[in-house]
Write a structure and sequence with these properties.
The protein is α+β, with helices and mostly antiparallel strands. The protein has helices spanning about 5-20, 35-45, 50-60, 110-115, 130-140, 150-155, 180-190, and strands spanning about 35, 65-70, 75-80, 100-105, 125, 145-150, 160, 170, 180. The strands form three sheets. It has a three-stranded antiparallel β-sheet with strand order 1-3-2. Helix 1 crosses helix 3 (about 50-60). Bound molecules: ligand HQG. Ligand HQG binds next to strand 4 and helix 4.
Length: about 190
């Protein structure tokens, strides 16, 4: 058994190592962002041993399914969110007509001027679960949800990718494809 707090702690260490700083523990990500589980466990040991069981539990029960293991259980990677150069190898996919992006109200002026930009990450992240998008936006301030006209963007030639945990990725969302979603609009009108 591993407590929820311990799971979060290990998940944060994994995010740091597998998305941002593999070099901090002497690792280098292989193709697709994969590393062997053995190498990872060995590399993590210097900052406090993580057992294979704990690692498997964290991968399986992670709230956003951030990590995945290869079918043979020998390799592990973060599904998205990297800042290090890595080609995740996702195939272009056809998005639903509309996708959602959670952000903070204070970013809206800039977003409606420049569109959604990827910042330090490799892609702009979008999803379909409104409640999740509210919590994603809430990490940055007062949450608002934007609707992305993904079908129209795709028809206009923008590439989309989808990860194994339902996160949709694209390079940049020009402002003309963005609107405040209905509940964020009524929220704004009520003020
Ligand atoms: C905003 C989490 C001003 C953007 C989540 C966001 C997600 C702009 C912030 C994943 C802008 C970047 C990604 C512009 C975009 N002007 N602000 N032109 N364009 N922004 O954390 O989307 O917990 O890099 O709206 O679940 O919040 O890491 O991206 O508010 O899937 O697994 O700039 O991270 O997953 O913030 O989150 P982030 P995000 P994890």
């Amino acid at each position: 058994m591993i407590s929820r707090g311990e799971q979060v702690r290990v998940s944060k260490r994994l995010s740091y190592v597998l998305r941002h700083r593999p070099d901090s523990v002497g690792l280098e990500l292989g193709e697709g962002g994969w590393v062997t589980v053995d190498a990872l466990l060995h590399a993590l040991a210097s900052g406090g041993v993580v057992s294979r069981d704990v690692l498997e539990t964290v991968v399986r029960e992670n709230d956003k399914q951030r990590f995945e293991m290869s079918a043979d259980g020998l390799q592990i990677r973060a599904r998205q969110g990297h800042s290090v150069a890595v080609d995740l190898g996702y195939e272009p996919a056809t998005p639903p007509e509309s996708l959602l992006h959670g952000t903070a109200e204070r970013f809206l002026d800039s977003i409606f001027a420049k569109g959604l930009v990827k910042g330090k990450r490799h892609h702009v992240h979008m999803g379909t679960d409104r409640a999740l998008m509210v919590s994603v936006g809430g990490r940055h301030g007062k949450p608002v949800v934007l609707e992305v006209a993904a079908g129209r963007m795709h028809a206009d030639g923008h590439a989309f990718f989808v990860t194994g945990n339902g996160v949709w990725l694209t390079e940049h969302v020009p402002a003309k494809y963005l609107t405040l979603d209905a509940s964020s609009r009524s929220q704004a009108a009520a003020r």
